[in-house]
Amino acid sequence: MESTRLQTIIAQIFAGYKTFTNEFIAYERLGVLIENSEQFEAYNGSYIRINDDIFLEDINATLVGGVMQVSEVILCTFVLNVVETTNPHWVSLQLI
């Protein structure tokens, strides 16, 4: 995943969820991406990327939102924890 997409995910989705709703929604979204990543890693067939989604052709399944690498999950988890303890607007501005 390229760094600009990662920054967008962190700043707009995770920090945004915490700012405007709560951290449970942000962690839920992160959980979906982690599950997608695990499924994608175990998959050995052909796939197609459609924007941020990944379509697994052999099992006719779509990983909505794509996947994340372990380092990206760690970074997102860190950002969520920072957002919980600091001013979320500051964190969002720093990541953009």
Brief digest:
With about 100 residues, this protein is mainly α. It has helices at about 5-20, 25-40, 70-85, 90-95; strands at about 45-50, 55, 60-65.
Task: List the strand order in the largest sheet.
Answer: 1-2-3
Would you identify the regions where 5 or more consecutive residues have pLDDT less than 50? 90-96
What is the global morphology? elongated
Order of helices and strands: HHEEEHH
Number of helices, counting only DSSP H or I runs of 4 residues or more: 4
Number of strands: 3
The separation of the N and C termini measures 16 Å
Structure keywords:
96 residues; mainly alpha; three-stranded antiparallel beta sheet; 4 helices; 3 strands; elongated; disordered C terminus
